[in-house]
Amino acid sequence: xxxxxxxxxxxxxxxxAAACQLFLHKGYExxxxxxxxxxxxxxxxxxxxxxxxxxxxxxxxxDQLISLERQRLQAVFATLEGGALERFRRFxxxxxxxxxxxxxxxxxxxxxxxxMHIRLHxxxxxxxxxFFAELCAQGTREGVMQVIHPLExxxxxxxxxxxxxxxxxxxxxxxxxxxxxAAMPELIERQLGAPPGSFAFLREPLINGLEMADDGDxxxxxxxxxx
Length: 227
What we know:
Layout (H helix, E strand, L loop, with lengths): L7 H18 L7 H8 L3 H7 L3 H26 L4 H15 L3 H7 L5 H29 L7 H15 L9 H19 L10 H9 L8 H7 L1
Helix pairs in contact: 1-2, 1-4, 4-7, 4-11, 5-7, 7-8, 8-9, 9-10
């Protein structure tokens, strides 16, 4: 076999793309470093030169997914105009519209993928929090919110909305999950000191996420990695 030498960044990206593809379709726990090597037809020494373990490779995949999603959301955020409440609404709708991925979520919800699931959630919340902190600070300046600690408040709300509506973490019945979704807008309004009804729009994207069925494509960031 002729050894193909590629620039380090190209080879690193190739390995991450292959791992992302396998994690999405085979599952993290079921994927081995050998699977990645066979998919790329590379030697053991090549893959371990860049990533010492599957866990380190998972970190690279998550970092890449988060980086791509951050770039996408920065572009969305830059276009938002108006007051804080309107920008909140537009930003949340943009996120909920473009980031659904039932197939990937089904894979994450498998017990064997719990570690990957939690780490991706945590990385996503850390990435999103500064966007929402900026909106909280704007709302406080405008007098439509009363937020003393914008970043910490954003992190608190993101953690609650992310984990409490995730049936892979809490196996709620549909009825119990809908009750939590129904309560969330008012709870968020009280946390932010926002006017009653100002976050009622949240119910629709949350319920849409609940009702998404078995079809779907990988999220835009994952598609960009594997293509």
